[in-house]
């Protein structure tokens, strides 16, 4: 998380039943300047402070995790009961697997529904997931690909590319609700075009550091 005081408490409260069933809940903060840490600490097993950056933060969380299956969840995501039930089934499997969930957007605009639909289809066809889709990875596989590459952007695309060389992902159809705030703040159509441009630029070898600057500016 990073400056997620509006969302983190609600998310962690939703995850308490999973925690009571044996899941270990780790929150990794990238230097929040708000009350995120104050809200999160009573509702998790470990609160970790890390250098800012999704890849660095997720790798920092993995280092202290004790579980066999790692689930990487963005702080502005909302998991439903059916998503958590499906994850329990996955945890109960002895198979070494990785995968992701379908998503739906929090906003009501019809373009957001189209965006989510296309993301789910694209992910199923390509075997590549984004962090919004709640990527889960068996620890053995995570170690085999040396964790998330510490890129400033596209760390999710990169690790999925390595993972699918080893094993095809499990594409769960249960829907994880993800925030549409960035799409709405920046303009939905404009963000659609920009996100496709970012992906194409990365595929053609553009420096992730430069893409990161463009993404956040």
Quick take:
The protein has ten helices and seven strands. With 217 residues, it is of the alpha/beta class. It has two domains: 1-67, no CATH class; 69-180, Spore Coat Polysaccharide Biosynthesis Protein SpsA, Chain A (Alpha-Beta Complex), CATH 3.90.550.
The largest β sheet comes out as: 5 strands, mixed
Number of strands: 7
- Which series of helices and strands comes N to C? HEHEHEEHEHEHHEHHH
Q: What percentage of amino acids are in beta strands?
A: 15-25%
Shape label: globular
User: Regarding CATH, which class of the largest domain?
Assistant: Alpha Beta
Q: How do the helices and strands line up, and which of them pair or pack?
A:
Elements: H1 8-20, E1 26-29, H2 36-40, E2 46-49, H3 54-64, E3 69-71, E4 77-78, H4 81-91, E5 98-105, H5 110-126, E6 136-138, H6 139-144, H7 155-166, E7 170-178, H8 181-186, H9 188-203, H10 208-216
Parallel strand pairs: 1-2, 5-7
Antiparallel strand pairs: 3-6, 4-7, 5-6
């Amino acid at each position: 998380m990073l400056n997620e005081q509006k969302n983190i408490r609600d998310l962690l409260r939703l995850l308490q039943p999973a925690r009571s069933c044996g899941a270990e809940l780790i929150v990794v903060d990238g230097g929040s300047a708000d009350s995120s840490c104050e809200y999160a600490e009573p509702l998790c097993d470990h609160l970790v402070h890390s250098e800012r950056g999704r890849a660095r933060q997720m790798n920092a969380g993995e280092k202290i995790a004790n579980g066999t299956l790692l689930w990487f969840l963005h702080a502005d995501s909302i998991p439903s009961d059916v998503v958590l039930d499906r994850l329990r089934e996955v945890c109960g499997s002895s198979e070494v697997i990785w995968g992701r969930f379908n998503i739906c957007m929090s906003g009501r605009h019809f373009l957001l529904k189209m965006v989510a639909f296309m993301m789910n289809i694209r992910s199923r066809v390509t075997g590549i997931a984004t962090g919004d889709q709640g990527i889960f990875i068996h620890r053995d596989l995570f170690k085999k690909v040396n964790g998330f590459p510490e890129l400033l952007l596209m760390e999710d695309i990169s690790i999925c590319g390595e993972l699918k060389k080893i094993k095809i992902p499990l594409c769960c159809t249960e829907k994880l609700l993800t925030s549409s705030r960035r799409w709405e703040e920046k303009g939905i159509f404009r963000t659609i075009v920009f996100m496709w441009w970012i992906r194409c630029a990365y595929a053609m070898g553009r420096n992730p550091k430069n893409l990161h600057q463009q993404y956040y500016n």
